[in-house]
Amino acid sequence: MSTGLVFAHAGAVLFVLGLAGGLVLGHLLRRILALNVMGSGAFLVLVGLAQSDGQPDPVPQAMVLTGIVVAVAATALALGLARAFHARTGRTRLDGGEE
Amino acid sequence: MRGAARLLVATLGLALAAALTRAIGELPAERPSQAVDLRPQVVAHLDQTGVSHPVTAVLLDYRGYDTLLEVAVLALALIALLVLAGARDARLCAPAGSPLLVSLARGLVPVVVLTGGYLLWAGAHRPGGAFQAAAVLAAGAVLLQLAGLMPAWASPGRWLRLGLMLGFGVFLGVAYGLLGRGALLDYPPQWAGALILLIETGLTLSLGLTLAGLFLFLTERRGRP
């Protein structure tokens, strides 16, 4: 198995971990982190599959670079929203359950 | 109930992970003959892009409009954050950090600025570029703020607004100026290198400020007077 395929497999596992985390965890901060884990998994699959024959492909690399920057911006926005939500309601989860 | 839901998610997650890894494993090792391989095309036209690193060529030349819109997304995220943070009257300074952190920050930040400049310049011919340089610069700003050497930002003044939007403005201006060539961001080959460097310089400054702003506009002082 080439290095690229190892990356792709790890990315698939990370994606599923993040997905399960986003479904199970209630705390908003953890959900944002889970979303980031999912995104990192998707990036790993893209970059890994593109170099599965040993040579990196610049097009997916550039797209993933774009994706990382957008993910950073989205995370910051999500954190801002979560903080505004906490400031108004005092809660850290959407369902209103106990901490 | 809660435990059952978790068990269900874990089971479905395991099944999905198994399916995904199996699907990846079953992909053919060789590219199918009819598949479009972009690598030779990227390399074949590299001498017309003004840069010699293929990732930079894709980011700022072949797919320059993706990057243009990406910068717009970053600016939108920052504007949305500013709306959420609301107006604040005073500039807040974190309490001075530990002496170790302060001296570490004082020593590191000049190196950070130097590294940012190097990454910007290196992007033309090796891994690097505006986004990496901006991330390094923003990390330096965050370090300064955490060490208590620089105040967090209140609502941006005229100069900060100008700096935040300069990169997008320069990028948009270049794109507008070249519209007469018939395609978006189609650089003339003899000017391509200089234009890409101009755009990347503006982007480094603005994205550095934007990424730092995503942190510094959200910082607030808690507890201590």
Coarse shape of chain A: elongated
* N-to-C series of helices and strands of chain A: HHH
**Structural class estimated from helices and strands of chain A:** mainly alpha
How much is the radius of gyration of chain B in Å?
A: 23 Å
- The termini of chain A sit apart by 44 Å
Largest sheet of chain A: none
Total domain count of chain A: 1
Classification by helices and strands of chain B: mainly alpha
Mean pLDDT of chain B: 84
CATH class of chain A: Mainly Alpha
**Total number of strands of chain A:** 0
How many domains would you count in the coordinates of chain B?
1
Q: Report the radius of gyration of chain A as a whole number of Å.
A: 16 Å
- What percent of residues of chain B are in strands? under 5%
- Poorly predicted residue ranges of chain B: none
How helical, in percent, are the residues of chain B? 55-70%
Strand content of chain A: under 5%
Q: Give the oligomeric state of the chains in this entry, treating copies of one chain as homo and distinct chains as hetero.
A: heterodimer
Low-confidence stretches of chain A: none
* Overall helicity of chain A: over 70%
Could you characterize what this model shows?
The complex is a heterodimer of chains A (99) and B (225). With 99 residues, chain A is mainly α. Chain A has a single domain, classed as Orthogonal Bundle (Helix Hairpins). Chain A has 3 helices and no strands. In chain A, helix 1 runs antiparallel to helix 2 (28-50) and helix 2 runs antiparallel to helix 3. Chain A starts with a helix and ends in a 10-residue tail after the last helix. By secondary structure, chain B is mainly α. Chain B has one domain. Chain B is globular. The relative contact order of chain B is 0.15. The chains are: A mainly alpha (99), B mainly alpha (225). Chain A binds chain B through residues 5, 8-9, 12-13, 15-17, 19-20, 23-24, 45, 49, 52-53, 55, 57-59, 61-63, 65-66, 69-70, 72-74, 76-77, 79-81, 83-84, and chain B through 5-6, 9-10, 12-14, 16-17, 20-21, 24-25, 27, 29-31, 38-39, 42, 54-55, 57-59, 62-63, 66-67, 70, 73-74, 77-78, 80-81, 84-85, 131, 207, 211, 214-215, 218.
